[in-house]
Amino acid sequence: MAVTCLLRYEVRAEHLADFETYGRKWITLVGRFGGEHHGYFLPSEGASDVAYALFTFPSLSAYEAYREQSALDPVCQKLFKQLPDFVTRYDRTFLRPVFDGQEL
């Protein structure tokens, strides 16, 4: 069963452009590790420090494999180290997606 990860970030407002660059890199990387990235969603109106990201893996075990592989990948390691520069906090929530026409 597929699993979607919803990430909620509290972004330092002065680093929003840097965070956008960071997010664009992860969109490509998640695909390389077998997931489907649905994009980053940055503040537009309202709260100016909250951003979201959504990506789906075919299963929880596929997501766990991505976590293990990305922890060893030099590009991912560099990005992991940059995150505290842009973000004061982030939370991860796992959801079961329901896509149009999908049968159980």
From TrEMBL:
Pfam family, one: NIPSNAP
NIPSNAP domain: residues covered: 7-98
Protein name (database record): NIPSNAP domain-containing protein
InterPro entries: Dimeric_a/b-barrel, NIPSNAP
Residue ranges the record marks as coiled coil: none
